[in-house]
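Appendix B, example 12.
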Amino acid sequence: MLLKNYAVYGAFHALLAVASGAFGAHGLRNLLSEHMLSVYETGVRYHFYHAIGLVLIALAADRFGGGRSLLTAARMLHTGIFLFSGSLYALSLSGVTKLGMITPLGGLAFIVGWGLFAVALIRSKAH
C-alpha cells in the first residue's frame, strides 16, 4: 500500500513539473535572467524525471513485490525532488545563491534512490 502511494505522489509530481515548466516558460521568461531561467528549467527537468521514477518504482513493486529497498528508493526520490528541484526553484526565484548548497543533498538522494532501485531489481526473484 505504501508503494502505491508513491505512484500517486509520482503522478502528482509530474503534474507539478508540467505546471512549473509552463509557469517558467510563460510567466518567468521576461522576469529572470537567462542563467536563472536555466537554473529553474534544470529543476523542472529533474522534477519530471524523478516523478516518472516514482511511478516506475511503484510499478516495479507491483510486478516484483515491494520490499524495503524499493520503499526506501521511493522515499529517496521523493526527498530528492524537494531538495534538488525545490532548492533550484527557490534559488532562481529568490536570487539567494546560498540555497544552492541544498541542491547536492537532493542529488545525493537521487543517486541513493536509483541505486536502491537497482539493488531491489537485482535481488528480485520474479522473472
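Residues 32 and 93 are 8 Å apart (CA to CA). The helical segments are 2-28, 34-64, 68-94, 103-123.
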